[in-house]
Amino acid sequence: MVYTGKKERSIRKEQTRMKKLMNAMQEIKASKRLLPSLIVLVCLCMHTHAQLPFSTAPEKVATRNGNKQFEKENYAEAEADYKKALDKKNNMPEANFNLGDAQYQQKRYEEAEKQFTLSAKTNSDKSVQAKAYHNLGNSFLSREKYEDAVKAYKESLKLNPSDVETKYNLAYANAKLKSKNQGGEGQDKQQQKDQQQKQQEQQNKEQKENEQNKDQQSENKDQQKDGQKKQGQQPKLSKEDAEKMLQALQNEEQKTNQKMQQKQVKVTNVKIEKDW
Fold first, then answer.
1. pLDDT at 78 (0 to 100)
2. Is a pLDDT exceeding 50 seen at residue 42?
3. CA dist., res. 260 & res. 249, Å (int)
4. Greatest Cα pair distance in the chain
5. Distance separating alpha carbons of residues 192 and 188, to the nearest angstrom
6. What are phi and psi of 133, to 5 degrees?
7. What is the pLDDT of residue 114?
8. Which of 19, 20, 46, 140 suits a disulfide with 149, CB 3.0-4.6 Å?
């Protein structure tokens, strides 16, 4: 909205705007739901245009120049003119409000919020305060800050309860806030479910690894016992094999004795001749 101290609008433009607005409201009632695409219709900043009383004061001249640039959709140039006006006269009501509009149109919503808040709190005109809160709600809505948008629209309706555009935007913001909260709860539940599933999978994995380790340890113990048993076992001989081995030992022993006896006989029979 370009505020210049007085509200004027051509009859044709006003009739066209209200016709579109009423058509949108009827569509909403017919469908019993809010249509996000219709937000473009009424969530633009409220524009009122009127010429400031002619004045050669620098701040007035700069504000009029800004209004001309705004109507041409040269929002950056309009912003520069409004800032010039504020440099000349700090907190000039028209320039404060219109500067927020120019920043909003450039999608610099946070900066616009500051200007609309300042305008709402410093302007003595309640109708302007209502429009400032309306535009503040639009800025919050553009940043998906639905709860703040709801609060701003409610403040606007306190000052101007009959404003249809603000009522629509309030309904839309409430619907978006409700949807966000419900979606958030569902998302939290899904995240909790996913986390529990991951924990269960991790527990199952650890349990499986523990079982595999136990099986491996048991297998190692069994192998160790088998090795010890094999080492402790003595080779078993049949009775026949034992008798053969015993007979062989006896034969060997007999042969050894015979050889010893022969050696002794030889020693005894040797004749040593002396050299007399």
1. 95
2. no
3. 17
4. 178
5. 6
6. -65, -35
7. 95
8. 140
Contact 164, 46 (CB under 8 A): no
Euclidean distance between CA atoms 136 and 131, whole angstroms:
8
Give the pTM: 0.55
| Sequence-distant (≥ 6) Cβ neighbours of residue 173 within 8 angstroms | 137, 141, 146, 149, 150, 153
Integer CA distances (angstroms), 221 to 210, 213, 227, 267, in order: 16, 12, 10, 66
Residue located via tokens 């912003």: 79
The contacts of residue 93 (CB under 8 Å, 6+ apart) are 3, 5, 119, 122, 123, 125, 128
Structure-block tokens of residue 60:
């007035």
Q: Which CATH superfamily is domain 11-183 in?
A: Tetratricopeptide repeat domain (1.25.40.10)
- Residue for token digits 């113990």? 221
In the three-class reduction of DSSP (H, G, I as helix; E, B as strand; rest coil), residue 155 is classed as helix
At residue 272, the pLDDT reads: 40
Interatomic CA distance for residues 82 and 94, integer angstroms = 9
pLDDT of residue 34: 35
Q: What are the tokens at 168?
A: 């629509």
Name residue 68's amino acid. K
Note the residue count of the chain. 276
Domain residue spans of the chain: 11-183
Query: At residue 139, what are phi and psi to the nearest 5 degrees?
Result: -65, -45
Overall average pLDDT of the 107-113 stretch: 95
